[in-house]
Protein backbone atom coordinates (compact mmCIF):
# COMPACT_ATOMS: atom_id res chain seq x y z
CA UNK A 1 0.00 0.00 0.00
CA UNK A 2 1.18 3.50 -0.75
CA UNK A 3 1.54 5.28 2.57
CA UNK A 4 3.38 8.29 3.88
CA UNK A 5 3.72 10.72 6.75
CA UNK A 6 2.65 14.24 5.88
CA UNK A 7 1.87 16.42 2.90
CA UNK A 8 2.85 20.02 2.36
CA UNK A 9 -0.27 21.67 3.72
CA UNK A 10 -2.56 19.80 1.32
CA UNK A 11 -5.47 17.64 2.43
CA UNK A 12 -3.47 14.53 1.54
CA UNK A 13 -1.32 13.04 4.28
CA UNK A 14 1.04 11.47 1.74
CA UNK A 15 4.40 12.85 0.66
CA UNK A 16 4.96 13.76 -2.97
CA UNK A 17 6.08 10.68 -4.91
CA UNK A 18 8.36 10.76 -7.91
CA UNK A 19 8.26 8.02 -10.53
CA UNK A 20 11.99 8.50 -11.02
CA UNK A 21 12.49 7.42 -7.40
CA UNK A 22 10.19 4.41 -7.78
CA UNK A 23 10.86 3.08 -11.30
CA UNK A 24 14.57 2.48 -10.78
CA UNK A 25 16.61 -0.44 -12.13
CA UNK A 26 17.10 -1.59 -8.53
CA UNK A 27 13.32 -1.79 -8.05
CA UNK A 28 12.41 -3.12 -11.50
CA UNK A 29 15.06 -5.84 -12.00
CA UNK A 30 13.81 -8.08 -9.15
CA UNK A 31 10.26 -7.71 -10.43
CA UNK A 32 11.24 -9.01 -13.86
CA UNK A 33 13.33 -11.78 -12.33
CA UNK A 34 10.51 -13.02 -10.12
CA UNK A 35 7.85 -12.58 -12.84
CA UNK A 36 9.47 -13.39 -16.22
CA UNK A 37 6.03 -13.36 -17.89
CA UNK A 38 6.12 -9.57 -17.52
CA UNK A 39 8.95 -9.40 -20.05
CA UNK A 40 6.77 -10.99 -22.74
CA UNK A 41 3.86 -8.70 -21.80
CA UNK A 42 6.00 -5.53 -22.01
CA UNK A 43 7.80 -6.14 -25.29
CA UNK A 44 4.83 -5.37 -27.60
CA UNK A 45 4.85 -1.86 -26.09
CA UNK A 46 8.55 -1.23 -26.66
CA UNK A 47 10.28 -0.06 -29.86
CA UNK A 48 10.12 -2.68 -32.63
CA UNK A 49 13.87 -2.60 -33.31
CA UNK A 50 14.74 -4.43 -30.08
CA UNK A 51 16.21 -7.93 -30.34
CA UNK A 52 13.70 -10.76 -30.47
CA UNK A 53 12.88 -12.86 -28.56
CA UNK A 54 12.86 -10.56 -25.54
CA UNK A 55 15.40 -11.42 -22.89
CA UNK A 56 15.93 -10.30 -19.30
CA UNK A 57 19.30 -8.88 -20.37
CA UNK A 58 17.69 -6.70 -23.03
CA UNK A 59 15.13 -5.42 -20.56
CA UNK A 60 17.90 -4.70 -18.05
CA UNK A 61 19.72 -2.62 -20.69
CA UNK A 62 16.50 -0.71 -21.38
CA UNK A 63 15.76 0.16 -17.75
CA UNK A 64 19.36 1.28 -17.26
CA UNK A 65 19.33 3.55 -20.33
CA UNK A 66 19.23 7.34 -20.18
CA UNK A 67 16.27 7.22 -22.59
CA UNK A 68 14.21 5.15 -20.14
CA UNK A 69 15.11 7.45 -17.25
CA UNK A 70 14.14 10.45 -19.38
CA UNK A 71 10.82 8.87 -20.36
CA UNK A 72 10.01 8.09 -16.72
CA UNK A 73 10.85 11.70 -15.83
CA UNK A 74 8.57 12.98 -18.61
CA UNK A 75 5.70 10.77 -17.44
CA UNK A 76 6.27 11.95 -13.88
CA UNK A 77 6.10 15.59 -14.98
CA UNK A 78 3.03 14.97 -17.14
CA UNK A 79 1.22 13.33 -14.22
CA UNK A 80 2.01 16.35 -12.07
CA UNK A 81 0.22 18.59 -14.59
CA UNK A 82 -3.00 16.63 -14.10
CA UNK A 83 -3.73 16.54 -17.82
CA UNK A 84 -3.39 12.82 -18.58
CA UNK A 85 -7.01 11.71 -18.17
CA UNK A 86 -7.26 10.38 -21.73
CA UNK A 87 -4.02 8.44 -21.48
CA UNK A 88 -4.91 6.74 -18.22
CA UNK A 89 -8.39 5.85 -19.51
CA UNK A 90 -6.61 4.16 -22.42
CA UNK A 91 -4.69 2.12 -19.86
CA UNK A 92 -7.96 1.01 -18.28
CA UNK A 93 -7.55 3.30 -15.28
CA UNK A 94 -10.04 5.85 -13.95
CA UNK A 95 -9.58 9.40 -15.24
CA UNK A 96 -8.56 10.57 -11.75
CA UNK A 97 -5.38 8.49 -12.15
CA UNK A 98 -4.10 11.17 -14.52
CA UNK A 99 -4.27 13.94 -11.94
CA UNK A 100 -1.15 13.17 -9.88
CA UNK A 101 1.62 10.64 -9.35
CA UNK A 102 -0.10 9.45 -6.16
CA UNK A 103 -3.43 8.91 -7.91
CA UNK A 104 -1.69 7.09 -10.77
CA UNK A 105 0.17 4.76 -8.39
CA UNK A 106 -2.99 4.04 -6.41
CA UNK A 107 -4.91 3.20 -9.59
CA UNK A 108 -2.12 0.91 -10.79
CA UNK A 109 -2.09 -0.76 -7.37
CA UNK A 110 -5.88 -1.21 -7.44
CA UNK A 111 -5.76 -2.59 -10.98
CA UNK A 112 -2.96 -5.03 -10.10
CA UNK A 113 -4.84 -6.31 -7.06
CA UNK A 114 -8.03 -6.73 -9.08
CA UNK A 115 -9.98 -3.96 -7.37
CA UNK A 116 -12.36 -1.76 -9.32
CA UNK A 117 -10.57 1.42 -8.25
CA UNK A 118 -13.31 2.75 -6.00
CA UNK A 119 -10.96 2.74 -3.01
CA UNK A 120 -8.90 5.53 -4.57
CA UNK A 121 -9.21 8.44 -2.13
CA UNK A 122 -7.11 11.38 -3.22
CA UNK A 123 -9.07 14.13 -1.47
UniProtKB/TrEMBL annotation:
Domain of life according to the entry: Eukaryota
PROSITE patterns assigned to the protein according to its UniProt record, in alphabetical order: DEUBAD
UniProt-annotated location(s): Nucleus
Residue ranges of every copy of the DEUBAD domain listed in the record: 10-118
InterPro entries listed in its UniProt record: DEUBAD_dom (IPR044867), Rpn13/ADRM1 (IPR006773), RPN13_DEUBAD (IPR032368), RPN13_DEUBAD_sf (IPR038108)
Keyword Transmembrane belongs to the record: no
Entry keyword set: Nucleus
Gene Ontology CC: cytoplasm; nucleus; proteasome regulatory particle, lid subcomplex
Main location: nucleus
GO molecular function: endopeptidase activator activity; proteasome binding
Pfam family, one: RPN13_C
Gene3D superfamilies in the cross-refs: 1.10.2020.20
PANTHER family: ADHESION REGULATING MOLECULE 1 110 KDA CELL MEMBRANE GLYCOPROTEIN (PTHR12225), PROTEASOMAL UBIQUITIN RECEPTOR ADRM1 (PTHR12225:SF0)
Name assigned to this protein: DEUBAD domain-containing protein
Organism name: Cerrena zonata
Lineage: Eukaryota, Fungi, Dikarya, Basidiomycota, Agaricomycotina
Amino acid sequence: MIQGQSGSGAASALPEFSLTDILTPANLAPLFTSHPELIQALFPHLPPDLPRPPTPETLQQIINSPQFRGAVGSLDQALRTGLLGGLVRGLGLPEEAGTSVEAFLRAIQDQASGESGDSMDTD
